[in-house]
Design goal:
- This protein has a 6-stranded mixed beta sheet, sandwiched between helices. A 6-stranded antiparallel barrel has the order 14-17-16-15-18-19. A 5-stranded antiparallel beta sheet has the order 5-6-7-4-8.
- The chain folds into 3 domains: 148 residues, Probable tRNA modification gtpase trme, domain 1 (Gyrase A, domain 2, 2-Layer Sandwich), CATH 3.30.1360; 83 residues, Alpha-Beta Plaits (2-Layer Sandwich), CATH 3.30.70.1400; 83 residues, Aminomethyltransferase beta-barrel domains (Elongation Factor Tu (Ef-tu), domain 3).
- Helix 3 crosses helix 8.
- By secondary structure, it is of the alpha+beta class.
- The radius of gyration is 21 Å and the shape is globular.
- The protein is built from 9 helices and 19 strands.
- A hairpin with a 2-residue loop joins strand 18 and strand 19.
Length: 367
Amino acid sequence: MSSDIENLKRTPYTDYHIAAGAKMVPFAGYNMPVQYSGIIEEHKAVRNNVGLFDLTHMGEFELSGPKALEFLQKVTTNDVAALEPNQIQYSCMTYPDGGIVDDLLVYNLVDHYLLVVNAANIEEDYKWLEDNLIGGASLTNRSDEISLLAIQGPNSKKLLQELTDFNLDNLEYYYAVETEIAGKKVLLSRTGYTGELGYELYIPNEMGDHLWKAINEAGKKYNMALIGLGARDSLRLEMKMALYGNDIDQTTNPIEAGLGWIVKLAKGEFIGSDAIAKIKEEKPGRKLVCMVLQQKAFPRQGYDIYSGDEKVGNVTSGTVSPSLGVPIAMGYVPRKLSKSGNTVEIDIRGKRFAADIVKPPFYKKAE
């Protein structure tokens, strides 16, 4: 086991996680903190105050060249041409049959684009992009050169403002800016995977130590918490934010996953556009829904969903919501059952639990 740990990648912050008492687990090839004080406590710290996440395991690709825009229009579903300078876009890449390669963020950084992809998909995504690359577009994998920290929660702006002269009131949602944080030039963005106000810092690895210390020092004033992967998962689930490998993958398409809003068929042809147009026209046979269980139980990925005696789907993500105190889950069910107000049953260890289908998100008080 020790040799397995030794083979895992480390982020610039690994020693800090261990020193803080984090429970470390292998994740996407990295030795990552899954929790520190506990998932519920960390979750509530982000909802009510502020927390710091190490997201260095995420992938970053740089795309440049005169045909970079044309290439992105070919391989992503959203309309990259609509992006203003320094604006960010949530999008996905699809296979010819409409299945999802990955969901990602596209940053328009004026002289190049930055693609931020899921940690577990870095190699596959890079190969997919390379295989479809066109002349005049240049692709570089910067994942191992960049560390990524996220500061999330209602007090994130106050905390971060103490470390920069840049007026954070001027950074709109889904925009980025190159600026100095604690005296170091970083790319700062405002997106988030929690539903709360939050920021991301893309940091050259050699500056990681300096930024970690500066943020944690400033965070003392706000009682900032360190947040692991466990609370990150429960936070995103409360907001019905999809997780690749759970809620979306090669076997799902954006329409049935509720991601039709990031598919812009009017922009012109892209990989998967014909298949998606057909699915949209004919309407998908199933839909990803939010479910709240009527009794205490713990729904987990893979549990069967029933309507009467018929098995109709599986749970893709599930937990007991730390914010709401009730069991919540997502899963695909036939379209005829997908309207909010309908009730299905989830089989948990041989016992059926009634679950009401509700409108997303589960947690509605986020900023």
